[in-house]
Amino acid sequence: MPTAFPFVEIPKELEEFIGKPDPGTRMYRRDGSQEESAVWFDVLTELIGPSVSPGGVGMYCPVSRAAVYKRIKEGKLSIFLFHVTHRATTLFGKNKILRDRPYGYIPASEARAWREELEQRALSRGTVTEEELEGAKPDWHGEFLDWRNEHERMGLLDVIKADGSTPTQFALGFMKALLSKKNEFKKLPVPAPPTRAEDAAFLRKARAEERKRKADVRKVLAKRNEHGK
Fold this sequence. Notes:
Blueprint: H1 15-18, E1 20-21, E2 27-33, H2 34-48, E3 51-52, H3 65-73, E4 79-86, E5 103-107, H4 108-125, H5 130-134, H6 156-163, H7 167-187, H8 196-228
Parallel strand pairs: 2-4
Antiparallel strand pairs: 1-2, 3-5, 4-5
Helix pairs in contact: 2-8
């Protein structure tokens, strides 16, 4: 007899910190700086335990990456995404290259539960097909994970249509705007790199904020544990 899938539980009061799920899914998204991502991951690990990337699900469950993406889209698997949006500065004024794709983690407990679900289904029906797991048109790339907001989730043609333009008009307008911005950037003065003292002050402030946020989240978790007793 099938049982409810054991999804990890994210307290509503922590969604502002962990991220809010996309409608109809369990894709929790959070934006922030490179420094904030480390604090986010520490707290996430306290909440959900060990986690893996989408490609790492195969260590616990014998499925392809396309099957993982399909299950995420269907809202049957949790994933926690952190989109790095702020340019961070390392010591001595060297710019850090930011990630194009978000950090993404799937609870290992859900990957194990998925394997058990497949084993039970195979025992009762005798087989589980690839199309059942991956869909008729398998998605091997998972670009939908990169979308940070509703506007980005529209296709380019949908955006052009909503703007009331033709594809040609849109392309010409885009090139014109790009050239205009390029000329503006040429006129801007080049800022001086931060000094070592400024870098050190920045890091001290960032670490103090990290400690405060961790403490705030742990207070919420402690209160929940007290009410649960």
